Amino acid sequence: DASSVASSYSIDLRQAISEFLPRSGLPLFSGNSKIRWVPRMLVVAAILMIWDGAEMITDRFESARDAVRAMWPTRRQPGCSYGGFMKALVRASPRILPVLVPELRRHVQRQAQRASADCWRIGRWVVFGVDGSRIECPMTAANENAFGTAGKNKTGPQQFLTTMFHVATGLIWDYRRGDARSSERSHLLEMLDTLPAQALLVADAGFTGYEVFRRIIAGNRSFLIRVGANVSLLTRLGWVCERSGNVVYLWPDKAQKKQMPPLALRLITIPGKGGKRMHLLTNVMDADLLSDQQAEAIYRKRWGIELVYRSMKQTMGHRRMRCDAPANAAVELDWAVIGLWMLGLLSVSRIIESGGSPYEWSVASSLRAVRRTIRAAVPRSSRRPAPSLGEALVAARRDGYTRHGSKKSRHWPHKKREKPPGTPRARNATELEIQFAATLRPREQAA
What we know:
Radius of gyration: 26 Å
Mean pLDDT: 87
Distance between the termini: 73 Å
Shape: elongated
Strand order of the largest sheet: 3-2-1-4-5-9-8-7
Oligomer: single chain
Number of strands: 10
Order of helices and strands: HHHHHEHEEHEHEEEHEEHHHHHEH
Number of helices: 15
Strand content: 5-15%
Largest sheet: 8 strands, mixed
Structural class: alpha/beta
């Protein structure tokens, strides 16, 4: 009958999600009878809300709650208030996310290695891409005070999201969020320790800088980063053996004043259409380990991070957060990333099991699949009864509270149009710089 069919769908959905959740740290029980949202139900409901396609966030909550009730029909039923759910999610997320995120990372590696060696590595490298993007938030005064507007005219409150992804599978690896003026470089430095050995980090011109490069090199990892006119390089410093003509040095004045050594790098110039050229910097000095052709092919795979943001903003409908309160908008963005991450793991794991490639994953198709399953998992008898048309029309009234300001938007965000990064500036090292570098060499060798 219909209830047994719905039960099979709810079990399938519960098992699929639970496969990628940590086995401990997300209990289904609570010793406190006042707690209506236990951690596991809270996590599943948050993910289902992200997958839901309803325009109103309260409608998403009702659908997710019905599905959670169908998944665990014999457990204590969760609360029916959206406000209570958000309070519980805001309170619990700082404890849940540090448990959940490392588990999702382990599953990314596990799924990639299940497929083939080529699915985890590209050649000899485990390649990761990173980039940042701003996420719009409702134009409330509270959001503007909490998140800021990135200092630009006619922009609303925004959060800044920096995402790292595993290039060979296209799956998210880690992320950081902050207010509108957050630094994507700082976010990257926070995520460096999550990278495995033999990792190669690929990024655009926004991630250049002496400190960023120094920290990556100090962690015994490699990078391939595009550079432009915002970078000044030295040549003929003599710090390393310069057998090839593409050895350059990054040694800004601040590093020299602090008596920090120059960074010896390799500049790769890739010709493009119309005489335009793309410039990449790497700390892999040996072309046998990373040829110019391999570097170009790997860098062009960085576009996968654009697919991550397009999937979250456009396909899943999270271009703009819906929560008016800053604390709620912050956790909404957290779970938007987790929802896309989980959707990717669900889909890629099944594709790999069938002998396919992760590159075949369609976010839109997998989203339609889970939405159909969520609807089928909830028997009609378990859904919240809809009011009659008359009752609904009687309740369809304007809000009755006293408004203290205009509803007119204070700003209207404009799409940014960034210029290409240009050509890095390079000059020969001066005699003084060559002599100073020579004085630092004994100390660097001793270290």
